[in-house]
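Lab notebook: predicted structure, single chain.

Context: the supervisor wants predicted structures on file for every construct in the current expression panel, including those that have not yet been purified. This is the next one on the list. No modifications to the sequence; it matches the entry in the shared construct table.
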Amino acid sequence: MITPNTDSSFIQVKSENLGSIYHSQGTLFDVKREGEMRKRIGGMGDLLFSVVDETLEQVFREAGARVIYKFMENKCHLRREEIAERPEVFSAGLERLLGSAGPVIEKMILKNLYSKLRLRFVERKGYGFSDYVRELRKSAVVKA
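Prediction complete. Output recorded below exactly as produced.
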């Protein structure tokens, strides 16, 4: 069964054998069990917060992650809990603090986020961190 959403930019294809495949602006997401996915995801904000925390601590250890969060709060006026609502501010802050390493960290965060969602991360030309986050927030995959 193929059904477009209200703005016709998002298509959901269901098959008993494959699960659900979502298509949004050329990106394919293979989701095995839609209901299980919806239960697993408490909310995009919580999930993104958790993944950002995990990734920053993997790369910079706990003390380094605290420094990054303190910088974001003091210089960018962004609290940790606001990253999902203001991903463009987070992205700009990382680039301001880390320079060319900022996009590398963002890509690591996105790969970890997509992995937690059991999705395949596909890099898209012209897409930035906030574009991926917004796309995931709008998709049926992460709506509770």
